[in-house]
Amino acid sequence: MGRGRRGGPKRGSYKNHGSRGNKSTRGGGKFKNKRKFNNDGGQKDVTSENKRQKLQPEKESVPIIEEESSSSESEEEVKPYTQLLSMFKSSSRAQQVLTSDEEQSDEEQSDDAEESEDVNDQSNEDDIDSEQDEDSDQIDEEIEEEEGGSLDDEEVNNDEEMNEEDSIHEELEVESEEEHSGDEDEEETSSTDPFHLHFEREINENLLEILTSPKPYETQEVKWKTLGRMVVHLPTKAEKKTEHPKPTLLGETIEKYVVPCTLPVLTTGIPLREYGVKLQLCSNLDTRPLSDNDQTAEELLSPLQHELFTLANEYRDIYYPEMNHLNSDDIRTVYCLHSLNHVMKSRDKVLLHNAKLKKAKENGEATDEIEYRDQGLVRPRVLIIAPLRNSAVKIVEKLATLLLPAKGQIINKDRFYKEFGEEKDDESKADTKKSYKPEDFEAVFTGNTDDSFRIGISVAKRTLKLYAGFYKADILITSPLGARTLLAEDFDFLCSIEVLVIDQTDVLYMQNWDHVLHIFQHLHLQPREQHDTDLGRVRLWALNGYSAHYRQNLIFSSVALPEAAALFSRRGTNFAGKVRIENAVTASSTTVCRVLVQLPQAFHRFPTPTAAQSADDRYHFFTKKILPQYRDQMMSNTLIYIPSYYDYVRLRNHLHKEDYNFGQACEYTPDGKLAQVRNRFFLGKKRLLLYTERLHFYRRLTMKGIHHIIFYQLPTYPNFYPELCNLLQDAFQNPKYRGDGSQTCTVLYSTFDAPRLAGIVGSQRAAEMLTSDRPVHLFVSGGS
Q1: What is the pTM (predicted TM-score) of this model?
Q2: What is the pLDDT at residue 38?
Q3: What's the start-to-end Cα distance of the chain, in Å?
């Protein structure tokens, strides 16, 4: 009766399909729900019959199928589903490998299924014994897979395997002592749980049409105390249409379609566990001794964390461009807590359904009519994109702190710190270094700064396994370059991503933004292989190709980037809505006020009609009106700051053509040549020096001998502006220029540089400069 059940006789291995296809069943699950369910005696027959009758309205609620359609619907009605099914049927590889214990149990269950058994004749002791047998099977499966391998060819040593086995047994012993409510409590919490409301329902046709339209969202503004001004994007309201009445059977009241979110509301005085957070995460988050589990969210989280988590917990897309080295750890705590909560809920849902299916088979019930949709096409659910290996270390440590109690286990921990930790040579250099860098530089580049890595992490209740295979992992942490090198061979691991986190987006922009776009282009593509997936357990919206509308994007950056804003608005169609934080830069927060040297700063606005044409207009304006002024002998020792490498190459070729006496310093210049050109510029042997933004970002060099500075374009980071302007102080000058007071600063900007201009001069002043009739504005800083 259920959709996708065209395998027929292969239904006997349903339980094993769920276990093999989703490793989140390892380490035991919430079998406590099943105990109370069985203790009700004859209630099970009625409940199981109710479940069978509840299936039919669920099939009728699929958005792309008419309500009169049955299980024999044509392939044209669900084209993406039939394509996947035909592709997977043609695969000659077996869907899974059963252990000897599982094969024996399946044979016994198939024999017992021929004769019906009375549920009332089973005692509570039989229920507990069957749960322990299932736990032992899962332990054997998990130990075999843990020994089976990881993303690389190295294996876990014997001590780690023994510790892992002990931790899994200990986890099951603790879980066997826990007694909570069963299916009734699950249905009560599911009616308010954001996870259930977001992923356990289908998209109706009207909402799907809105999300695929050219303008799917309408914007409103909300202001919170800590986050400030938020621009909320909500799905456009569709015209009211007469809908078919929803059939209800046996008191069925559960909604089948998702409901678009409304404006976010910040709630206070509510325990964190009532947000839907797992009790284990709440306990590990609260580090105070002898504290109960009813701590409110305000007591466990900072004001910034509380507001961010409120938005993330509702599965809204978030773009937060105000991250810095002071609040980065708080933000990392929020998205790690949300990711772990999402993975643990998904894992518990699969475990619960596996237990129900096995119990039904043991009782001789027919499982052909029982259908649980609780999985994706592949196992990985969370993707975290980070720029450097030191960022991955911080993320893994935060995950371990939130997930693991005192007796928790981290598999492959030594190997991880060996490959991702700071090398001894770097530590010795850090101790003997003489030059001191800014705090934001130290926060980014302290530790291992390799930008090519990827690692899979599988999550159990008290175990965190690193270096899990990508198709055996729950969380993937990768750099754009590390993912790019793998996507050329395989991209199936990205087809079921439900939570996507981009950390330190500004650093990724400095590396290679094309790699980030390449990852987004490979999200939710049709997989080329089955990867031991049981299609009967895959959610219908995933089979129909609607995964992009369920994916949540969390983007955190230190500066407001137009590229990140475009990625946020164009590459995400989340029906839960989007929230973009946009706060005005006050006069007290401007960086132009940090310029200490007495320096006249002339801001020249050049006209340009479009953003695509701004690069050409900037080049022509600079070469025709600005650059000729610096041929004069008095305008020597001029540094030209260029953010874009393409503009740098263009200007370099122009200066070569016009026979200018200049030097060049970019991120690709060798150290020896860089030292030589810096020395010649300081001595005045080079009149002009081209200096790229990426070189300054990665090195933070102290360029001496600057007498004039030109910003070909405003810096991406507002703090770079005062850093470079302050290099014109007498302490960094050639003795023959000290104290002459002839230094100048020239800045080029257009209307499309509004975010960068606002970060330097403030939002209000930037608006005046962009709309003023005067194309030149003069600032004078410093002085007594």
Answers
A1: 0.77
A2: 40
A3: 85
